[in-house]
Amino acid sequence: MGGYFVFFASGMGDGGSGKEPPDGRGGDKQRVYSKIRSWGNKAVAPPRQQVDLIQQKLATIVYEDDTRLKPMEDALVVKLLGKSIVYNVMKSRLTRLWRLTLGFDILDIGNNFYMVKFDTEMDRTKVMEEGPWMIFDHYLSTKNGLQILSPQ
């Protein structure tokens, strides 16, 4: 049995003081904000069956030159120790801190780790050799990306 749900909200437009708002609409009237149609007793779709396409040989993965980490072999993995910051802040702080000749790309790889790929080898060498680096009075750990990501 489908019905309508109607939501009402108090019209105190000035934060609840009860005074008349400046647009003259009245502060004590109720307004209708939304109507949502109830769908009643519709059946829920069953969950989809998960299929492993690689195991069933319906899909394959082809690696470039037979190495899956080739694009990131010269990248660094960085982590700010003792503090977590969001992507935009990390990128802007690293840009100001390192002052590189060209630039770099940064990728959030989870758990407050970032993969950094440099445009030139000279910039990468500068970052690795001129440390230690600090952001917000916390040390920035830098490691070769392949050392961390390669299976042992």
UniProtKB/TrEMBL annotation:
Domain DUF4283 intervals: 73-143
Name of protein: DUF4283 domain-containing protein
Organism of provenance: Glycine max
